Amino acid sequence: MTHLVDVSQEPHQGAIWPRLRIEAATVAAGEPILASMLHAVILNHERLEDALGYVLASKIGGVNMNDMQVREICDQALHENPDIIRRVEADFQAVLERDPACKGFLQPFLFFKGFLALQTQRIAHQLWRDERQTLALFFQSRVSELFAVDIHPATRIGAGIMLDHATGIVFGETAVIGDNVSIMQDVTLGGTGAERGDRHPKIEEGVLIGAGAKVLGNITVGHHARIAACSVVLKNVAPHCTVAGIPAKPVGGECCPEPARSMDHMLVED
Known about the structure:
CATH superfamily of the largest domain: serine acetyltransferase, domain 1
Strand content: 5-15%
Helix content: 40-55%
Order of helices and strands: HHHHHHHHEEEEEEEEEEEEEEEH
Radius of gyration: 19 Å
Structural class: alpha/beta
Number of helices: 9
Shape: globular
CATH topology of the largest domain: serine acetyltransferase, domain 1
CATH architecture of the largest domain: Orthogonal Bundle
Number of domains: 2
Distance between the termini: 48 Å
Number of strands: 15
C-alpha cells in the first residue's frame, strides 16, 4: 500500500511545490504503473508553474487545440501574472485544510475537478483581461464540457477558494468572490433575468455556500456569512449571518466565526 508523506503541518506558501514533488515520488515508487504519468506531469518539471501548465493542457487539449498550444497559453498567462501562482498555492492549502477526503497535494492537482476548473478559470481570466475574450471563452467551454463546471472568464475570484465536488457550479460574468470562500456542488451565482451590466452576486471573504444554493442578482453576501444548502438567496446577507430557505431568510442567530474554514453546515435552532 502506498502512503503519502505527512501533511498534518500547515505548509507555508512556497513549500507546496517541494511537497507535491515528494508526494509524487513516493507514489511513483510504490505504484510503478503510475510512475510514467507522475514523471510527465510533476517530476520532470522544476517549478509549480510548469507542472500546472502541463496538467491543465493535458485536460483542456483536444481536437481543436492540442496540448502544446494550450500549454503555451498557460505558460504565457502564468509568466504575465505571477500572482496566479500565489492564489493557486492558497487554493491548495484551502483544499487540504477543509476537505477531510484530501490526503495531500497530489490528489487535487491530478484529480479534483473543482481545483482544476478553478485554476483553468484563473488562466482564462488573465486572457479576458488581455482582451482575448474568444480564447478565454474557449477555455470556459472546455471546462464546462469536461468537468460540468461553468465559470465565466470575467468572474473575479480571490485566493484560498475551495470548490468541493464542484459538479453543477455556475458563476456569472460579473460575480465576485472574495478570499477564503468555500462553495459546494450545484451552486449558482447568477442573474435574475435578461438585465445587462453588473448583475451577479458579490461574495465577501470567508463565506460558506451549501450544496444546491442559488444566489441571484447584484446582491452582497457579507463576510463570514453562511448560506444553507438548497437555499435561494435574493437579498443581501449581513456579515456573520446564516440564511436558509426559499426565499432565504436569517436563521439561528450569528453563525460560527469562520464557516468557510470550519465547513460547519449545521443550523442551530432558535
